[in-house]
Amino acid sequence: MRTFANPVIPGFHPDPSICRVGEDYYLVTSSFEWYPGVPVFHSRDLVNWRQLGHVLDRPSQLALDGIRPSGGIYAPTIRHHDGVFYMITTLVDGLENFVVTATDPAGPWSDPYPLALPTAFDPSLFFDDDGSAWVTANRPVGDDGLGEVFLRGLDLESMTLIGPEHVLWTGALRDAVWPEASHLYKVDGRYYLMIAEGGTDIDHAVTVARSERVTGPYRGNPRNPILTHRDLGRDHPITGTGHADLVRTPDGQWWMVLLAMRPYGGYHYNLGRETFLTPVRWEDGWPLVSRVEPYGPAPDLPEHRWPAEPACDHFDAPRLAPCWNHLRTPREPYWSLTERPGHLRLRVRPQTLCERANPSLVARRQQHRDFAVHTSLDFTPGPGECAGLVLVQNDDFHIRYVLTERGLEVVRREGGKEEVTARVPVPGGRIVLGIEARGQEYRMRCATAPGEWLPVGDPVDGRLLSSTVAGGFTGAYIGMYAAGGDAGNGGNGGNTADFDWFEYVGLAH
């Protein structure tokens, strides 16, 4: 029997939603303040996934200007109906709910169709057998995280809400907090409403109710919650299970994709909320969900592996690979792959990581507890300028490993307060930078000649990159960065930093 390893999509990929079209499966996840928004993945066996691109990849689709850390795009849902893909989501800052459509999940996707859903979030779509379309969403009721799930009809021609509103459920537990992540399904003639409860930390859970009619009334499963790891404690290797979606294979098997977290170095979550997979079966008309394990029997589908992505990006393609992100929506082209062919060129600009701006940063997710990153940098810093590698949780919690006029520096920023933990002089010209993480120990090193590696300072404690310390819902990013110095110091606006290649390798532990 084949087995698979969880998570199936490692690193910061929370709130997964999935749909099947024939023998193909498509999955999207939240992206928060990172751009492009809503990564979209493709699989044929539910285990091996490749990224097709992003749903929201144009500024006209996604304005993240000034968005706070862990703001932005929450909880997308993807569905397919009559040859069209639909993605519905919330831009939380301002509570803007909208739908985009495409005939190919790789894009292009339409500009947003806004929906009149004030105070609502985590919307989802359901297409009934009679051709009717419905939107579920969640909204707060009072204070302290109490809420309710409600339903409205959707006219697919005008892409507007129609008909009366129906309140469906307030959750399984008395005074259940954060009833959210609602999805509707129709199974054997009954309607099932599945939601998340308890918030996205250790008390996260999945609950379900059912009804004979789409508009209700809905009755909760007496065995709720159908999935939670809250009883296993913070030291369990997989915690915070929840925010799930269901999919049925062609031969009738059911599977659940969900978010969960892998703590390490104590109760710390540098990797953020990741996408996991677990089997589902039905008993007495209710879904029974298996506990989420690091390994398990693979779905009874033909194995379909995609070609492995290169560990090293030589920046010789015409566009950045799908793994690369920007912090908030870029309004100007601060990067180039053509000005110096075979290099990623970043413009030195005044915007920095320390503010809610769009700095000159091209970054990718940390996807392994233990990893190594290397890059080649060609940069001559001017007054107040820097360029190099950064490890980012948000504007107040990050590590900068950068070349400045003063030398090569390691700057640790925690809670908005900065400390230069290392500074070493280096000769001018090309330099290779490296970061190796073993658990929460992040070591920096450099080489000015091939193979002549030198340590740069003492290891840095990586726990500041954990949401346990920094707060929020995202995971750590690693990337290439250039700036005109600290916030407010400006820059000459004409300098550039060239990165010849970037390599990311997960390490066994």
TrEMBL record:
Keywords: Glycosidase, Hydrolase. CDD domains: GH43_XynB-like. Pfam families: GH43_C2, Glyco_hydro_43. The keyword Disulfide bond does not apply. The record marks 122 as: Important for catalytic activity, responsible for pKa modulation of the active site Glu and correct orientation of both the proton donor and substrate. Residues 215-234 are annotated as: Disordered. It comes from the Bacteria. InterPro entries: ConA-like_dom_sf, GH43_C2, Glyco_hydro_43, Glyco_hydro_beta-prop_sf, Glycosyl_Hydrlase_43. GO terms for biological process: carbohydrate metabolic process. The active site is at residues 15, 180. SUPFAM superfamilies: Arabinanase/levansucrase/invertase, Concanavalin A-like lectins/glucanases. Residues 312-504 form the Beta-xylosidase C-terminal Concanavalin A-like domain. GO terms for molecular function: hydrolase activity, hydrolyzing O-glycosyl compounds. PANTHER family: BETA-XYLOSIDASE (PTHR42812), BETA-XYLOSIDASE-RELATED (PTHR42812:SF12). Belongs to the glycosyl hydrolase 43 family. This is Arabinofuranosidase. The lineage of its organism: Bacteria, Bacillati, Actinomycetota, Actinomycetes, Streptosporangiales.
